[in-house]
Amino acid sequence: VQLQASGGGLVQAGGSLELSCAASGRTFDRYVGWFRQAPGKEREFVGAVNWNSGHTYYADSLKGRVNISRDKARSTVTLQLNSLKPEDTAVYYCATGNAILSSMHMTRAYTSWGQGTLVTVSS
Asked: How far apart are the first and last CA of the chain?
């Protein structure tokens, strides 16, 4: 499966972003996750969705600001992040894999990754 992330750009603090991840070649695996990596930092889990059930899981630090949804007809997963802060600046990646529930927050659980899309939040 090939993943294409889109929607990044420059956003003002307090605003919102919406990123999309589209799959081609075949459908997503069990989980579709979003991760982000800020300059000089490790890649961190943002959230994930179970492609079949639609159940969502979010990083504790982002709960209340993040929402992930899926569109099976369009083979896309959307990440929404609200009340943006400068520390949300990062390259955002989508990924998919047949992880088990206990590991779906880990990068090693995902076998296919998109190219990443840069989000810059200005203060």
From this structure: 37
Among residues 99, 100, 113, 121, which one has the least CA distance to residue 38?
121
Report the sign of the C-alpha dihedral through residues 42, 43, 44, 46, in that order. positive
Main-chain phi, psi angles of 111, to 5 degrees: -105, -20
Series of mean pLDDT values for 10-residue runs along the chain (123 residues): 95 97 95 97 97 96 96 96 97 95 93 96 95
Amino acid in position 53: S
Please state, in angstroms and rounded to a whole number, the distance separating the CA atoms of residues 26 and 103. Answer: 23
Q: pLDDT at position 101, please?
A: 87
Looking at residue 99, its pLDDT comes to 82
- DSSP code at position 110: -
Q: Which tokens go with 105?
A: 């927050």
| Alpha helix stretches (DSSP H) within the chain | none
69 forms bridges with which residues in the sheet? 78
